[in-house]
Design goal:
CATH class of one domain: Alpha Beta
Number of strands: 18
Shape: globular
Structural class: alpha/beta
Largest sheet: 8 strands, mixed
CATH superfamily of one domain: FAD/NAD(P)-binding domain
Radius of gyration: 21 Å
Number of helices: 10
Distance between the termini: 43 Å
Order of helices and strands: HEHEEHEHEEEHEEEEEHEEEHEEEHHH
Helix content: 25-40%
Strand content: 15-25%
CATH architecture of one domain: 3-Layer(bba) Sandwich
């Protein structure tokens, strides 16, 4: 298997040392695929996209589905993210999407984002998945006065394109809204989205899919795939699976040669998270950041953060460009330093967990849902750009309907086949250079 980072990033024998894994009972390990198997649809990857696709095919189409997962359901980004079920999914502004795909294209993608949040909410209720962790809404905090001006301009674009309102909070109003942090210069507040326990959601999806007949195999990485007759032959270390149609839903953990078409079209980017011990009410008041609403800032190298119902505080940011243990340790130390700079009253608060995972970018800066060119029966759904909880979930549903031949309307921005990154072998060196440039644009932390 050909991947971009060092082997430790893909070691499915161990779970990340996350709060999410530590806070749930360990589920029974799904067995590895073995022997000769057949199915109508094979799904590669047991994350939000793959599990939603499998569940949709089994429920709506009564399709026989097998899910092959290199680790266990939720082992990848779906079980280690920050739990922001929110708007987003592309690395393009609303104005850029409108310029490329027309205002109708922008509205179609925005409607998809809203429906994606609603889909997750309905799925949690319908399948009795206990994962929701807080109130509706999302706060974007300006890290400078110039950034606040951009937030105001972007709010006007959303009002004109979508008829959406945005509450703007001036610098002087942050404290009374429980939004006080070092260097914050204002905020924009949206009323959509909600926080979740990401691994509880992934495991709940797996249970729901299995209850409807989906076969899920863990410890079953696909090591080769070959077109064969009217379908595909997939090989794992212990099994050979024949399927008429295949969905690739491996996102940032994809192998670049499965299939070769995928090579150079994605860029896995590390995101790193810390979780504090529970904060007391007095500690929250001392810092002045008390809102239960999930939040993030406007930096290019952004920070995202939220209070959990039990008082713990989650703080995440872009990680490094290496998965070696020594590099991971340096990243964890940097996350701790930046957390202390933005929330100085909590600088000495104990941290219980550090972990990291991959965000998946594409060469076109947008997700992709569609058939793989020149490969009949092969489909892909990936590239959620760091906001995958909602779009990956509904994206899996749309991919399932596409595979089943059911009527489906995929937004134009998501139908475009991702281009390859220029000089794909140099993606990581280019990422390091981009981080340096973006950090200069952001300016120093307060």
């Amino acid at each position: 298997m050909r991947r971009l980072y060092e082997d430790p990033a893909y070691d499915t024998a161990r779970w990340p040392q996350s709060h999410w894994r530590a806070s749930l009972p360990a589920p029974p390990a799904r067995p590895a695929a073995a022997g000769s198997l057949r199915t109508e649809v094979a799904v590669i990857g047991a994350g939000y996209a793959g599990l939603n696709a499998a569940l949709r095919l089994a429920e709506a189409q009564d399709t026989d589905v097998v899910v092959l997962e290199a680790g266990q359901p939720g082992w990848g980004a779906s079980g280690r993210n920050g739990g922001f079920c929110c708007l987003g999914g592309a690395h393009l502004t609303d104005a850029e999407i409108a310029a490329r795909f027309g205002e109708g294209g922008a509205r179609g993608f925005r409607d998809f984002q809203h429906r994606a949040i609603e889909h997750v909410a309905e799925t949690l209720v319908r399948h009795a998945i206990d994962a929701r962790q807080g109130p509706d809404g999302e706060v974007c905090l300006a890290h400078s006065r110039r950034a606040l001006a951009r937030l105001i301009s972007e709010a006007e674009v959303r009002r004109r394109l979508y008829g959406e309102g945005t509450e703007i909070v001036a610098p002087g109003g942050l404290a009374e809204r429980g939004l006080r942090g070092a260097g914050f210069a204002g905020a924009a507040i949206l009323d959509k989205g909600f926080p979740i326990h990401p691994l509880a959601y992934a495991e709940g999806l797996a249970r729901a899919a299995m209850a409807r007949g989906v076969r899920i195999f863990g410890a079953s990485p696909v090591v080769s795939m070959t077109a064969e007759g009217a379908g595909w032959r997939l090989a794992t270390p212990e099994a050979e699976l024949r399927a008429r149609r295949v969905l690739i839903a491996t996102n940032g953990y994809s192998s670049e040669d499965l299939p070769p078409w995928l090579g150079g079209r994605t860029l896995p980017v590390q995101s790193a998270i810390l979780m504090t011990r529970p904060l007391t009410a007095a500690e929250r008041q001392a810092q002045g950041f008390t809102t239960p609403v999930m939040s993030y800032d406007t930096r290019n190298l952004l920070h995202y953060f939220r209070h959990l119902p039990d008082g713990r505080f989650l703080f995440g940011m872009r990680g490094g460009t290496s998965a070696r243990p020594e590099a991971e340790a340096k990243t964890a130390a940097r996350v701790r330093r930046e957390f202390a700079r933005l929330f100085p009253a909590w600088a000495q608060v104990e941290v219980e967990h550090h972990w990291s995972g991959f965000v998946c970018m594409t060469g076109s800066h947008a997700p992709f849902i569609g058939p793989v060119p020149d490969a009949p029966g092969l489909y892909a759904a990936l590239g959620w750009h760091g906001n995958g909880v909602a779009p990956a979930s509904l994206g899996g549903v749309l991919a399932a309907d596409l595979i089943a031949g059911a009527p489906v309307a995929i937004p134009a921005v998501m139908r475009k086949v991702p281009r390859r990154f220029p000089l794909p072998a140099l993606r990581r060196p280019a990422l390091r250079a981009a981080y340096l440039w973006k950090a200069m644009q952001d300016g120093p932390l307060p």
